[in-house]
Amino acid sequence: MKSTIPDTGIPLAPPADNGGDRQESSLHGEILLRLRDYVVEGNIPDGARVPERQLCEMLGISRTPLREALKVLAAEGLIELLPNRGARVRQLSQRDLEELFDVMAGLESLAGRLACEAITDEEITAIEQLHYEMYGHYLHRDMHGYFQTNQRIHESIVAAARNETLKTAYTNFAGRIRRVRYSANFARKRQRWAEAMREHEAILDALRRRAGSELSDILFQHLRNKRVAAIEHLTEPQENAPASP
Amino acid sequence: MKSTIPDTGIPLAPPADNGGDRQESSLHGEILLRLRDYVVEGNIPDGARVPERQLCEMLGISRTPLREALKVLAAEGLIELLPNRGARVRQLSQRDLEELFDVMAGLESLAGRLACEAITDEEITAIEQLHYEMYGHYLHRDMHGYFQTNQRIHESIVAAARNETLKTAYTNFAGRIRRVRYSANFARKRQRWAEAMREHEAILDALRRRAGSELSDILFQHLRNKRVAAIEHLTEPQENAPASP
DNA sequence: AGGACAAAAAATGAATGCAAAATAGGCGGC
DNA sequence: GCCGCCTATTTTGCATTCATTTTTTGTCCT
Known about the structure:
Two copies of one chain form a homodimer.
Chain A: H1 27-40, E1 49-50, H2 52-59, H3 63-76, E2 79-82, E3 86-89, H4 94-118, H5 121-139, H6 143-160, H7 164-184, H8 190-208, H9 212-235
Helix pairs in contact in A: 1-3, 4-6, 4-7, 4-9, 5-6, 5-8, 8-9
The first copy, chain A, binds a DNA duplex through residues 26-28, 51-53, 61-65, 67, 83-86.
């Protein structure tokens, strides 16, 4: 019985919890949010079945809203629905990952271009601030902090693009990749750090000059390089222990 | 009773039809495909309710699979689900449209960049072929043919990017815009033709040279210009009659 | 006549029930 | 001992049913 959800005792987020800040009136919506997190956080192994019955008990609901949530998750690309065989967590091939990274690169590249049209000086200052913070993490070899701040920088750029449609798509794709990170112990390589820092300097520079097309290029390349490092990392043995939470 | 689906007698695609070429084993999948087309083709007015009961009768199914399909369409951004108030066709504001166009521009821009890495000479030849065909339509003032061929060119570029994830996202967003076209009589302006043709020449040129970053730029600008023309068109009176089908 | 309130009607959201398919388990054969 | 086949159980997919909420309609009052 390996297809059982790892019974960590975690009740799939406390029922009365209502998450961090979001709210959802409908039950299927609530279920969707919790189930999405549950999958993204890697609580179900790659390719494993998503047992309806068991989840219903866990969540204390009937199958109808759960199945509705599953359909949506399938549309989002997190799980796949095999006819008459239920839902499985989508197993991403290396090729899938490469594609995902490229799409993310495209979206961030677009975000950078759009951001140059609309970003305020204050937002740039805020990003510079994050950049220095990140540099501090870099100096202290704090991979976890570095990674978090790095992510906030990229999110800031996406936010500065002033495009909710883009932001939604970005978040969706980011979730798929995040799942891989969670479940596959997806640490970055130290050797990429210095290079990445340099690239970030170039990003900031282009952003300050509002050089949209240039920034677009730099961002794409930056993400491309990340992709190479990340994908390599999947096949090779791990270089360093995962950062502790 | 304006919220009634226009009763054109069309039974929402003949039940035994099975569409053009695709096939779907599950009922909700089948329903999803048909309903998506139905919405995209503008059969339900903007912002109108999507009456479950009526659709169930039309499709000869129960509410369960229909509701599952609706959840997915909502996730795709074609409709929106108001709590306890059912589904409505999503009404896109002008801002929404601008955002959509920009995201499409970003995706095509990405597609062009990736295509330069992988496209074969044969594919380029095929696109050149389409280009000449399109030029013919341009000379004959055949807007409908022009538009169709133009679309095929852009699809060819996306296909040449060799990225299924990108292609899926592209198709999704294209659907949302297509709905606006169908329902809002979204003709292009003649005055854009000459300019668009020139841009297409530049696209082909960059493609031949496999100049990824350059092509990326050109495609983004090309789509941006389209956006301006299209959005303007929404507020202004129509310049010319819609092409006959 | 117009508006506000209230009851009826309809629609939605979720739970349950049922047929069909898939999986698991047991049995016999080789 | 291992493989294939047949049956029992589980699981899936859809229909149906039930409880709320919303919307409509009718009536009364100002």
